[in-house]
Amino acid sequence: MASTDKPAAHSDKTEVESQPPNHSPCINLFLVDLPLRVLLFASTVVAIVLITTSKDTEIAVVSLAPSKFGPRAAKFTHSPALIYFLVAVSVACLYSILSIFASFSSISKPAPPKTLLLVLAFFDALFVGIVSSALGAAAGVAYIGYKGNSHVGWNKICNVYDKFCRHIAGYLTMALLASIILVFLTMLSTYSLYRRSR
Amino acid sequence: MASTDKPAAHSDKTEVESQPPNHSPCINLFLVDLPLRVLLFASTVVAIVLITTSKDTEIAVVSLAPSKFGPRAAKFTHSPALIYFLVAVSVACLYSILSIFASFSSISKPAPPKTLLLVLAFFDALFVGIVSSALGAAAGVAYIGYKGNSHVGWNKICNVYDKFCRHIAGYLTMALLASIILVFLTMLSTYSLYRRSR
């Protein structure tokens, strides 16, 4: 990109001067992009660690049914929403690793390849949807665990499985952070393309 | 945009021939963008209608507690997840109306304003996150209503409130459609900027 700009600047100086936004069209925003992707990786890894270590066994009544007395474990595998959450965050973690390499490969270039910006923006937008839906699903179920729902007789469980619920709060926070980072990353790639557009 | 290309094509034909993507950099993708936004509006309106008309009163036992006998209504206001869903989809519906006007204003232009493309891509990405998280939250709670969760004593309610659950299935489908449309719209605006980038 820079190589196609330079001859134009040499051959026709007045044309370049009449288009002030063209002076720095190829800003490299990967200096912001890369740290955000590392943060995305860190948040997804912490979320995965928290969800996989969230088993909590308590001797407790977790239902109104008398047969439910006795020691019982709360595990994320008991909830399809939390399983979906783990799968979605794991895929997002893998994507963050791949995108860190892609971002790192372009950080030193004066004009990063525009196709890379497009591909990153596409996948970032897709992962905004995946991670946000997983966050919503896990948060919706966690809220019932935290508050219960008296209208349909679903009892809260966080008064019993406090350790389990603290873990849930932790990985929901991490997933919220990951979602926000992904929205910013989408905007960043789009803005880079905008700066280079005519 | 087109005017800046034409002099270049006249002055240096070989340079233009070596860059085939520059022949039609200003394609107007609003012809695809506008119908998608109308579809987004339609799906969110249907979702709003379905959620606000989803009240279902049944004489039923919805809990193991003996005091819960008698006629009871299932309403979306009983679930914070479904309230969040309604708010999120309503905001997305308002946004779709605004973006339809923006898209319509640029549909006939040979080169739509690039700032509009950037703003639409930003907001589309944001709404992917909002609508997807609402979809996840509502789907997570709906799944418990459909299947229950024996591990924590949450009983399924869809065997009783079948009309209510059919409505939920309807508006979840609409929200899924809206999420997918929003991802495509983000990609479309980004692709338009990509086609115009150097």
Automatic annotation (TrEMBL), chains A, B:
Q: Does the keyword Protease apply?
A: no
Q: Where is the signal peptide?
A: none
Pfam families tied to this protein: CASP_dom
Give residue spans, biased composition: Basic and acidic residues: 7-16
- Membrane-crossing ranges are 34-53, 81-104, 116-146, 168-194
Annotated region (Disordered) at 1-21
Task: Write the record's keywords in alphabetical order, separated by commas.
Answer: Cell membrane, Membrane, Transmembrane, Transmembrane helix
Give the protein family.
Belongs to the Casparian strip membrane proteins (CASP) family.
Cite the NCBIfam families for this sequence. Answer: A_tha_TIGR01569
Q: What is this protein called?
A: CASP-like protein
